[in-house]
Amino acid sequence: MHFTTTFSKFSLLVVFALHLTSGQLLTVEYSSVTLPFPESSVRTFYSTGDKIYLLGGDFEMSSGIWSFSISSDTVEYVTAMPGRGSRGTVQSDTAGNIYYLGGGNIGTSNQVYKFDPTTNECTLVATLPLDVQDCVAIKYNETSDTVHIFGGDGQFIDILTFDLLQFNTTSQVDVLPVIVNQGTGVRVGNKAYIFSEGQVENTAVLELDLDILRMMAVGPANLPSITLFPSSVYDGRHVYLIGGYAPSNMTTPIDGLIQFDPVSFNNEFIPVANFPVEGASYFRVSPATVYVPDLNRIYFFGGSSFNYTTDEFKIHDEIFYIDLDPLTPTSRSTDDFGCEGRMDGLYPHPTNCGMYVACRNHEQIVFNCEPDRQFDPITKTCKFGTPCV
Ligand SMILES: *[C@@H]1O[C@H](CO)[C@@H](O)[C@H](O)[C@H]1NC(C)=O
Ligand SMILES: *[C@@H]1O[C@H](CO)[C@@H](O)[C@H](O)[C@H]1NC(C)=O
Ligand SMILES: *[C@@H]1O[C@H](CO)[C@@H](O)[C@H](O)[C@H]1NC(C)=O
Ligand SMILES: *[C@@H]1O[C@H](CO)[C@@H](O)[C@H](O)[C@H]1NC(C)=O
């Protein structure tokens, strides 16, 4: 017991020293609102604008869709899904519809639900030939309607390719060199970077070439062993891995982000102050994550943690974000609107009617409307055909 205490104090000092030398200090900022229920395995979707969609989960949120408003810090119920959605994956087509891949009752996870965010309708559109729970799903490219689904309970080393418009599938059997399961991954150009249970032996990042569907390990084999459910985001430069590993060896701390560089293949631990788990507590199921480019923030929702000291699981309901600006040497230039002295609310952008400004506590956040829409100052929404003034 004494040894453990001393050891963790020592590692805190090391982390603190890192902050001082690098001058980089990322901090968790908690939202004033929480999820409607404590929840793990929520799936997120974000494209542009103010809304982050939250789909499904392991418990009370498992058959519904909610939305989180970044500017007003509120969570709203949107609609029910046709069935349960737990540990599936989310993708979108080029028309802007959102798909939950892996819905179904307990024991089945082969249904595809289509959610149209313009009508808020959610329907069952396809049944896949395999269960796709705990899979990774990666679109071929940004403007493609083809998704590769792989890993997971039903197809450890197979790849199922699904067409989001025609709902047909093609499967390729035995194509992955290692078992991928309960993993996470992001697309960077025509490659996908995967972190999963399959890495327990080699602890390196897995790269999947989306053109030829070949997977290999890249970079140093120095990641912590991923044993559970991590999550990941891509900010256009780096991939960030969050959670999914236990603090057994204390080589990689728990309270921060692992930053992976898809150019050099190196990775680095970035400590984060105020992180919801630390020391002997870690995220078994990482919070759902999403990167919001306009704000350069990663948003986090819920998750489930285990505390070695108390031997207790905790399902989280926190919503929080990490601003990545301190990692960028020159800060983003912000348009000079000025929320000083203004009431909280949404205002037209001074020079671009396809954008708007949210003021909160006298701080400004600039948002883009969805493509081809303009901000309407009367209804305070982005609409088609609003005249630009
Ligand atoms: C994306 O994939 C489609 C084929 O699905 C192709 O026609 C298009 O050129 C690709 N776009 C980019 C940016 O590579
Ligand atoms: C779906 O069908 C279309 C046309 O029939 C074909 O071009 C496409 O490759 C198919 N997609 C998949 C994923 O099988
Ligand atoms: C990490 O700790 C586990 C026991 O908790 C041990 O079996 C394993 O060998 C350790 N790994 C390293 C790299 O020290
Ligand atoms: C884990 O449990 C210990 C003992 O109750 C507590 O002091 C610590 O704050 C807990 N850790 C977290 C991250 O909740």
UniProtKB/TrEMBL annotation:
Keyword flag Signal: yes
Domain named Chitin-binding type-2: residues: 336-389
Gene Ontology CC: extracellular region
Keyword field: Signal
Signal peptide (residue range): 1-23
Source organism, top-level taxon: Eukaryota
Molecular-function GO term, any one: chitin binding
InterPro entries, per the entry: Chitin-bd_dom (IPR002557), Chitin-bd_dom_sf (IPR036508), Gal_Oxase/kelch_b-propeller (IPR011043), Kelch-typ_b-propeller (IPR015915)
Protein's UniProt keywords contain Lipid biosynthesis: no
Protein name, as recorded: Kelch-like protein 29
